Amino acid sequence: MKNKRVLVTGGLGFIGSHTVVALQKEGFEVVIIDNLSNSSLDVLAGITQITGKTPEFENLDLREKPAVQNFFEKYPDIEGVIHFAASKAVGESVINPLLYYENNISSLVYLLQELVKKDSCKFIFSSSCTVYGQADELPITENAPVKKAESPYGNTKQIGEEIIQDTCKVNNHLKAISLRYFNPIGAHPSAEIGELPIGTPQNLVPFITQTAIGKRDELSVFGDDYPTSDGTAIRDYIHVMDLAEAHVIALKRLFTESDRANYNVYNLGTGNGNTVLEVIKTFEKVSGTDLPYKIVGRRAGDITAAYADTNKANNELNWKASRSLDESLESAWKWQNVVIAKEKEEN
Asked: Which structural domain range is residue 84 located in?
């Protein structure tokens, strides 16, 4: 895929930055759009350190339609788009739904309006297992019914998929894949990039590592009364590099497979579920650190259990998650220590 120019929106974010690394390793020419609302320009240096190449970068807000139009006029040779840019915290979306509908839906619409003008374009959508809600059966297959969303965040992913599917129906030259992924964790093994939430983390693992390093007093475990082995919720935790590599494989498939439907969906996970307490105990083992935590009430919008049936991605994309929970948590801990060391240097 040498010299194919690809846009990655939200490319300085957690999953986006790791995907940029994976794309550049495969010879793609990458342009990043990011408004730095939940990321840092320092990530660009980390990507360069890993790959030896600095991707092009545009600081713009995808909610501004004229800015999106101007971007595609400046970069007419974009052949593929991987769309990560979105607000993603379930709890925050319950409190501030309009922020999520504006940010996650309007940006998608403005992108697609530009892509359908092209003779051909490939589009990968960052979707989520939240579209399934609390599934009737586990593991969850792509054929599981899409249920009424448990949160505005989940609803934006459902609506986003519907928008893409409807657009593909009437634009045969647009080929798209929605990747429904489960719970990305970990960091690049170099510890040059990783998950770096601004403010209080909304996801489990950065809250664990920040608590272990002393940045947070203790970890809150939301609910111990779920019908699971230890009462805590079950999720499918996938290493971010496994996830990043899947995006590259999916994009390459769109470039090389001309005889298939122009819209498809795939689950991306490990196929295994772990409870919150299992993740905590595994982290304590790999880090050699005791983690202070307390049980609190359930969080709005959370479900009991979700883990993937990955057979479709395994068979059709020839992709399979290969990194363990131990490896994921080790890399997250290594990254957290690098972050703290940098903060101390700066202070």
From this structure: 5-185+238-270+309-323
